Each structure stands twice: as C-alpha cells, then as structure tokens.
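A quick aside before the break. I want you to see a complete sequence-to-structure record at least once, exactly as it would be stored in a machine-readable document. Don't worry about memorizing anything.
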Amino acid sequence: MSIRLAVDIGGTFVDAMELDTRTGQVRFRKASTTPANPAEGVLNAIAALGTDLSEVELFIHGTTLGLNAVLERRGGNTGIITNEGFRDIFLIGRGNVPADHMYDFRYQRPESLVQRRFTAGVTGRLDYKGNVVDELSAESVREAARELVENQGVTSIAICFLHSFLDPTHEREAARIIRDAYPDVSLSLSTDIVREYREYERTSTTVLEAYIRPIFERYVDQLESGLAAQGFAGRFLIMRSGGGSMTGAVAKTSPTHTVLSGPAGGIVGAAYLAGELGRDNMLTFDIGGTSLDACVIEKGSAVAAYEAQLEHFPLLIPTYDIRTIGAGGGSIAWLDRGLLKVGPQSAGAAPGPVCYGRGGTQPTVTDAAVVLGFVDPERFLAGTMGLADEAARDAIREQLAEPLGLSVPDAAAGIFDVLLAKTVGAVRQITVERGHDPRVFSLLAFGGAGPLLAPLLAREMGIGEVLVPFAPSGFSAWGMLSADIVNDFSRTVMTTLDDADLAAIEPLFKETEAEAVASLSAQGVPAGEGVLERQFELRYLGQEHSLMVTVGSTLDATAVRDAFNELHHARYGHTMSNPLQILNLRVRGIGRTSRPSLPTIEAGGAASPRTHREAFDFGTRTIVPFAVYDREDLRAGNTFPGPALVDEGTSTTVVPSGQRVTVDEHGYLHVTLSEVAL
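That is the input. The structure line, written in tokens, reads:
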C-alpha cells in the first residue's frame, strides 16, 4: 500500500487529500460538511476523490466535532464528583468577564455544561503537599455515583479532587468503585488528562472531556466502521490541537486534544514549509467557511501554548497559539443600527451562503466575492457546483446596499473592508503586541478564502510577501500528512530555580518520560525510535504568564536561566533580576513520520491569461478588467501584474493593482508589491 489520505472537516466543506508516496502526486477534492452526520461528509469527500481505500496505508483526520459539541450543547449528560465542600468549583470558575464584554453590563455567561444537581462531593482529602488529610470514603463515592446515575440520569462523570495532581490514588480508587457499580458509565479522571496545579482549570478540562467523550467515541467508531466497510485496513490517526497525531483508540480516551485539530494541520504544514522554503518567520492565514485562524511561525517552529479556551471554559491542553475570529466565507454581513458588521454568525454548510441556492437568505462574505467578480459562478469547485449569482446580488442590494444608500458593488466591497479591519486586529495581537514586526514575515494564505483576502492584508500591514501553496483550500489536510505521532505529559513542580534540587527533579522527568514512551509504544512507534523532548515551564517570580524552555538530558540551572532570559527578551524586550519559578516540567514524546516532498514544476515563458473578467479592484476601488489565469497552466518563473485572478477551482487568489505574482519552482504563488518583484 502506498496511498496516504488526509481529511479535514471544516464548517462548510470537508477537504480530502490523497498522496501517492511512490510518485509524490497529490490529488484533492471537497464535499459539503454534513453537521447532522459528520462521518457521512467524510465518506462523501473520499468518494469524490475516488480513492481505493484498500490501497490506503494511512488515514489521518482533523475534526472540530468536540468543539462543535460544546458550542452547540450536544455533549453527554455529565456529572462531577469532587471533594466534599468543593462541588461548586466548576460553576463559580474565575468570575472573569471576557475582554470584548468588559463594559457590557448585560453580559451573562453561557449556560454551564453541568447543572448543580449533577455535582456531588465525597469524603476524602489531600493537602497541598499530596499528604492524606482524610481517607477516601468508599461508601461516600458509591452514594454520590448512585445519586448521579440512578436519580439524575448522568451517563458520563468527571472525577477531579483537590491536589490529586500530586497523588492520583484517590481518583483512581473512586473510579474503580464507580466502574464496579456502573460499568457502562463513562469516566474521566483529571490525573489521566493533566497532572498540573490550578483546580478550576483542571476541573474544567476534565468536565469538557467527559462532556464530549460519548459523542466522540460514537463518531470515531462510526467512521472506522464506514472506512472498514470500504476496504480500509491501514493506520487510522487523528490530529492533535498542539500538532502531531494520535491513534483513534487514544483519541477516544482524550477527545479534548482534538478540539482544534483542524487548524493544527495547517500550522504543522506551515512549519514544515517554512523550513523547506527557507522562511524563518511566517504568519499562517487560514480562512475557512466559519472562522479565520492566524498563528506565528518563529525560526521554523509554531508558537505553542498550554491552555486553550472553549467559550469561557479553560482547557489545559497543548495547543498552538492561534488567534481565531468568527470571520470566514460563510460569515453573515448584517446591519447593527446602521453600521455594517461581518460575523461572528455564519451560514455554515446548511443552508450556506445565498449563492449556494440551498435556502440561505442572509448575505455572506462568499456572496460578496461573487458580486465583486472574484468567483466565477460557473466554475466554482471546478465546475461541480454552480452558484446563484443573481440571488447573491439581490440579497446584498435589499439587505445592505439600499439601507446604506450604496451601490451593490460598494456594499459588497464594504463587507471585505470590515472583514479586513477585523483581520488586521487579529494579526496585530500575535505580532505587534508580542514584539514582532509583521513586515519581516511571509504571509502563508490558505483555506478556501485565505487567498481572497491575503494580498489586501499584506498591503494594509506592509507585509512584503504572500505565499499561496498548491490547493490552498486543502492545505490543512496536506499539513496533516506531515504530522508526527505525538503525546504530551506534565508534572507540577512549583519551586524557584535557585531553591530547586535538580537532582531530585530528574526522577520526575524519568517517570514522565516513561509515560511518553509507553504511549508511543501503544501507538505503534517501535522501541528506541521515539524522540523525547524535555521542557521547563518558567516565569519570573511574581509574574502570571510563563514561557517554555527546552532543557537537555543534563539539568543546568545557569543554562536554564540564560535560555529563559534570552527568550523573555526576544518576546517582551526586557529581562528581570527576579528569581525564576519552575511551574511544570513537560515531556513530549514524538514518533517521526516521513514528510511529503515538495514537487517541482517545469519552467515556462510568459504566462497567458485564459480570459478577462470585470471585477472590483481594491487598488483603485473601481470595477476594472482582471486577467484570469488557470493555476494548472502556470509554470515556474511566470510573473504577471495585478489586477489578476488565479483560479484553481477550489479557491481563487485575488491580486489587486500595485501587486505582482511570481511562480516559484514548486508552483507556489509569491504575491509582492510590483516594485519589489520587478
């Protein structure tokens, strides 16, 4: 078997990409997302691709099923068992108000995932050093489980005790007692998920896992059955939010690690691409149907974080430091007291934008792109899906242009203007506000709508180069093909570097490394072939935020401090004399996989446009003729100025006047200011 298959579920479409490892040939197809039955959309995308699943050696999948389960409140009926007197930890939380609601006195937090009657406290307690204060009461655990399961109808239970990250014995004993009494109830233990301090964040992570696990298990089982029925017998992997992948069996026991797995695929691919193309600094710019995701690649590595957020619920999982806003191709344009706004509401896959002709009535970014001439209604999705351009025009005219007193093209251009302003804000958060100059970065545009907006963003922020890879709408799926098998483990240390006995910390590293090795082995990584990476999570004493420093097999306090100071200066522009505090130690286990190579294309002479089409030029803000190029006809060395459109069926790169396209040896598009490229 020589075929690898990657499938990424987005808010509007499912992207399927096939790689033939013998020839390096890549094929790509899309199918509509099927929210009511996500596995159906995956199988439809594979059918559109025409892949013989009996020839597939590896199937890797990115999905937002867990994320959507939380947002749409479709998870399991979940309960919480914790220490007596602390049953309200999850309900109280931190009491903070999101920044975008700072001055909104009407703000109310979203409904909790767990009602108070579904929480129970049991006798048993550890102190802050992990010593037993009160022994765990087996009868108390049985009574709590009986109340939750028999009286409240709970089908999934999160178990999280105070200070259990120091000693998981009480949690494991409680789980044993409950399993004996109720073997069909799904259990999630905080110490199986994250061994770190902060009881609310740890509880929240455990509750989210318990909430999404039942539906995630059903989905994975359904998808595996559907693939097997069509002859698939290879390896089945699922992307992690923090990069890397895991087997389907591990994913079913750790579904929270998949909540941002779709965007992670694109970032893994971008990091690999940055190395291959010799770009130390790169910004990822991924616009799909429902959201825009941006991330920084520094020195070939994506900036990582160890806490994510779902609504107001914190998640202690490794993830990429992604800035996400509700702005995508399906984002709805609407008026708020006479002001034009875009998103965060999305038309999604059903009914979708007005131009899809599936019952959508509210104009979206995609409708604006059609009206502005950027998308050919007859050639959308390589001609497999015609668009109702007049319906899109009528929706923008009636709902936006006439109320605002604008022409239809100006109203459609206004949608892009608002989207661009929101995008600039998101990119500034991860560049300027982190001490980075965006002008020294290359902007990697992907997702179905990424190449539509990226040249405008580059011009607005002074970014010198936009890169558009092959099949940008499926780039996240392509990135998954280069994902290693990865698992992360941690332990809380909580001591200053000066006071730490590094020799005593070494056994903790060894214990954590043993967990990582066991996890890799269980996922098919041969003994001795896994790579282990050690890190300290550090901060200056008195600070809230921390940074990760990679440490070697020999722990040296001076080297650790020097590395932290260098990283802190690079990130924040200064260092401090405060003592360093070690919060957590971390070990990442990595099973390397082979990467898809970047194919090269033939060189050619001057590029010839297929046709010309009237479209809106943001360089002059007028309707002008655009040269339309088919991407498959472009050759290495081709160069041409804007205004131009590069159509490849599943996405279109829009190049306004004042910018120029150059095609490199891999067929990638480089969009620069005209005077730079000449």
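Two observations worth writing down. Residues 128 and 163 are 6 Å apart (CA to CA). The chain has a mean pLDDT of 90. We'll return to this after the break.
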